[in-house]
């Protein structure tokens, strides 16, 4: 009896030694809360633990160094997980390393410090990234123009821009909302901030902010933008030194023939676009497909492209999902006309039949940027004043997963890309 007890104790002790990884599946069948799973990985990295991102394996699963606190967080947050032995982990990793499989295990090294560009008193309609970061329990700081112009971005590895207008035209809301109290107050506050920061116009100040953000990326930062922050950012860069704002925005007329003065060489992602001159039109330029597209809500989907996991790790990380077909959603900037996307920019997700890119990525200097069209992946046509999306109802959202791919990929130890 004594010998049996000793053997059982040894077996239990042996199992505790071998159970050295927490495995987070990310397929549709095996994970009940994809969004919070990213938060678990971030939590582990914050606490100095090692992790691996298993690209194209079980929906883009994660392997995290075993730790009681991580297991406890999985239980609290409702994330599906398994405790697996080192031997089983090694079998998984050896299978992934096979040259015949389009898979890769990417080490995750350090939790990136995150900044969200947003006015401190932003309007109640939601910012999808702020919502999903909060839901996934990933910490972030809020920065705005003053912090950007004072070089505070140097404190962060990752920056998010959402429903923002870098052209100084107040989101092009003039046509429908110029009499709304919130619009009048927003314009007043923006003008006061520009004056405080020493700029003659909001458009001039916003242009300076856009150039600071560009320099942040060139210096090695990671930028992620959604909705109108995508095209308005590039327009502001291309229109540097050119007045494209009408008098209701900045007090004086725009420059004659300003279209001919647009410099596409200054942009990050877009080329050859035509600006919309009518100030009452809720649109900036020909980049956005919102007014041109003829797609029903029921058939509005886009397809994620497949990349080589062993050679093109960054785009592979950015497209990890439990489905290749993602439900579309609209925004002030819904999608990008393929004709206006520069040839050196990767299209990660597109609706090819309609000639629109939904999700694009590029390199600028030492840094990288990703532009994601649309406002809220789980609110098809979000309107001013609509209630915010409750992510408890969408814990497996493929559209929101793409955002969190961007949040986490700066943590990866990267190797040189093939393309």
Topology of this structure?
Elements: H1 2-18, E1 19-24, H2 34-46, E2 51-55, E3 61-65, H3 68-77, E4 82-85, H4 86-96, E5 104-108, E6 114-117, H5 128-136, E7 141-143, H6 145-149, E8 158-161, H7 174-177, H8 181-196, H9 202-218, E9 222-226, H10 228-238, H11 247-250, E10 301-304, H12 313-318, E11 325-327, E12 336-337, E13 346-351, E14 356-364, E15 367-372, H13 398-408
Parallel strand pairs: 6-7, 6-8, 8-9, 9-15
Antiparallel strand pairs: 1-3, 1-4, 2-3, 2-5, 10-11, 10-13, 12-14, 13-14, 14-15
Structure description:
- By secondary structure, the protein is α+β, with helices and mostly antiparallel strands.
- It has two domains: 2-108, UreE, C-terminal domain (Alpha-Beta Plaits, 2-Layer Sandwich), CATH 3.30.70; 114-411, Rossmann fold (3-Layer(aba) Sandwich), CATH 3.40.50.
- It contains 13 helices and 15 strands.
- It has helices at 2-18, 34-46, 68-77, 86-96, 128-136, 145-149, 174-177, 181-196, 202-218, 228-238, 247-250, 313-318, 398-408, and strands spanning 19-24, 51-55, 61-65, 82-85, 104-108, 114-117, 141-143, 158-161, 222-226, 301-304, 325-327, 336-337, 346-351, 356-364, 367-372.
- The strands form two sheets. Strands 6, 7, 8, 9, 10, 11, 12, 13, 14 and 15 form a ten-stranded mixed β-sheet that branches. Strands 4-1-3-2-5 form a five-stranded antiparallel β-sheet, with helices on both faces.
- The protein is globular and about 70 Å long.
- The termini are far apart.
């Amino acid at each position: 009896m004594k010998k049996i007890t000793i053997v059982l104790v040894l077996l239990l002790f042996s199992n505790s030694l071998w159970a050295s990884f927490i495995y987070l599946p990310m397929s549709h069948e095996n994970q009940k809360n994809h969004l919070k799973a990213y938060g678990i990985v971030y939590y582990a990295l914050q606490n100095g633990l090692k992790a691996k991102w298993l690209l194209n394996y079980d929906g883009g699963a994660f392997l995290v160094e075993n730790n009681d606190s991580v297991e406890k967080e999985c239980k609290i947050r409702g994330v599906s997980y398994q405790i697996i032995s080192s031997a089983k982990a090694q079998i998984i990793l050896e299978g992934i390393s096979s040259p015949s499989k389009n898979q890769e295990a990417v080490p995750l090294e350090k939790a990136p410090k995150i900044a969200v560009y947003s006015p401190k008193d932003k309007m109640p309609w939601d910012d999808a990234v702020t919502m999903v970061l909060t839901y996934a329990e990933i910490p972030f700081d809020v920065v705005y123009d003053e912090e950007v112009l004072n070089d505070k971005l140097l404190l962060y590895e990752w920056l998010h821009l959402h429903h923002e207008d870098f052209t100084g035209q107040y989101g092009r809301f003039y046509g429908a909302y110029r009499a709304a109290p919130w619009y009048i107050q927003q314009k007043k506050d923006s003008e006061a901030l520009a004056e405080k920061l020493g700029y003659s116009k909001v458009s001039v100040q916003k242009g300076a902010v856009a150039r600071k953000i560009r320099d942040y990326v060139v210096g090695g930062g990671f930028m992620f933008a959604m909705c109108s922050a995508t095209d308005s950012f590039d327009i502001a860069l291309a229109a540097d030194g050119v007045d494209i704002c009408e008098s209701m925005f900045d007090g004086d007329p725009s420059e004659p023939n300003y279209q001919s003065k647009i410099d596409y060489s200054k942009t990050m992602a877009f080329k050859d676009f035509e600006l919309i001159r009518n100030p009452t039109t809720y649109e900036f330029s020909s980049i956005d497909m919102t007014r041109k597209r003829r797609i029903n809500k029921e058939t509005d989907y886009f397809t994620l492209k497949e990349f080589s996991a062993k050679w093109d790790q960054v785009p592979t990380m950015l497209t990890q999902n439990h489905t290749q077909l993602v439900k579309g959603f609209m925004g002030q900037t819904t999608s990008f006309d393929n004709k206006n996307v520069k040839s050196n920019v990767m299209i990660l997700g597109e609706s090819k039949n309609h000639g629109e890119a939904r999700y694009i990525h590029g390199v600028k200097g030492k840094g990288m940027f990703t532009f994601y069209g649309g406002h809220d992946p789980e609110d098809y046509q979000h309107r001013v004043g609509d209630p915010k999306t409750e992510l408890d109802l969408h814990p497996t959202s493929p559209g929101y997963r793409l955002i969190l791919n961007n949040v986490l990929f700066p943590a990866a130890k990267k190797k040189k890309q093939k393309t």
